[in-house]
Amino acid sequence: MSEQQGLAAALAAFFPAGGTAQRHGSGHIHDTYRVEAGGKQYILQRINRQVFPCVKEMMENIAAVTGHLAEVLRAQGRDAARETLHILPTLAGEPFYRDEAGEYWRGYDFIAGTAVFQQAETPELFGKAAQGFGQFLRLLEGFPAEDLHEVLPDFHNTPVRFRQMEQALREDRAGRAGEAQREIDFVLHRQGELGLLTGALAAGELPLRVTHNDTKLNNLLFDEKTGEPLCVIDLDTVMPGLSLYDFGDAVRFGASTAEEDERDLSKVRFSLPHFAAYVEGYRRSAGETLTRREYELMPEGAKLMTLECGMRFLTDYFNGDVYFHTRRPGQNLDRARTQFALVEDMERQWDAMKRAAGQ
Ligand code: ADP
Ligand code: GN1
Ligand code: MG
User: Fold this and answer.
1) By alpha-carbon position, which residue is closest to atom 7 of ligand 2?
2) Which candidate, 14, 63, 262, 325, has a CA 20 to 30 Å from the CA of 351?
3) Would the pTM of this model clear 0.90, i.e. be above it?
4) CA 218 to CA 205: how far, in whole Å?
5) HEC secondary structure over 200-259
6) Helix H or strand E encompassing 32
7) Separation of 30 CA from ligand 2 center, angstroms?
8) Does residue 110 have its Cβ closer than 6 Å to ligand 1?
9) What is the rounded CA–CA span in Å between residue 114 and residue 340?
10) Probe residue for ligand 2, chosen from 214, 306, 311, 339 as the CB with the greatest number of ligand atoms within 8 Å
11) Contacts of 178 (CB under 8 A, 6+ apart)
12) Which helix (H) or strand (E) holds 160?
């Protein structure tokens, strides 16, 4: 069964009179379509089974989280229809559909009148993103973490990510290990720092919270009219975690002056004004929710999430590009290189980053 046949079957499973579908967005994980059916728009996604083998548990998490968000938003007199995702059940009333090839599909109401950004052109825009994600953290403060399945264990466990990279290097399935010695050395040189966040958590210095864990700028919808952050999407990885995972992952993507897969590394810079704007946006939205230590370690969060993401791209490069979607050969290596270039630039600006985080 081809993807097209699967798509046709999925359309029939969700919409009584079928619908028309077009590819949408630029996420690295799922195959996303925008669907028109019965005069309305929807998002339909073929879920990446390699990344998410536990689809049922993932959808249970999303149902629980979006249910909670809708309740809190309504209680605050806000527009729950546009400020959180809504799962579209199949015609049979299920939260997802499994096609004959064993692929899983899910639907969401399409949130119209929104804009998504692949880069934060200005610090102001990035500060607004911080407010969107900071508020998300806040809205989930009262959510019972024990209700969540840990769908991707050790997702932001940096030492574990390091070991996965070592394993991929040893196995060298795609025969590429020889092509990235500089990148490997770059990581090895910083090996002693990798356990800083996991260590602080284990020592009780940082609180475990319910976090998003994938706070890329393009996982936040902005209201097209007001320009304000509207809705946090891509909730697949909502799990117990550290606020610094969310902070750091957002900064690694949004405070870069270049795209994630830029090949000309001279264009890749870490923007301190963006970093400072993100800290400030968090202060405004997550405010007193965060502890002093969480603020103090923001530079470390940014650096480690960037280093970690670089290791993940490198791991996938060694494994033969089996995890992240790629559109050209070498794209994962290019992505790893931009992350490491950012880490280097952060190191150059370290004192200023510490000052911006309030020290
Ligand atoms: P991936 O995990 O592959 O990144 P996402 O769930 O982030 O997939 O979706 C990919 C893109 O589709 C998003 O960046 C956004 O542009 C768009 N999108 C997803 N859900 C919605 C929605 N409910 N309404 C409008 N746009 C959406
Ligand atoms: C993936 O799904 P998307 O494109 O928002 C990945 C993130 C990475 C990111 C790098 C489930 O995010 O962890 O940081 O790519 N998501 C998953 O761009 O692995
Ligand atoms: Mg996404």
Assistant:
1) 214
2) 262
3) yes
4) 31
5) HHHCCCCCCEEECCCCCHHHEEEECCCCCEEEECCHHHCEEECHHHHHHHHHHHHCECCC
6) strand 31-37
7) 10
8) yes
9) 32
10) 214
11) none
12) helix 158-171
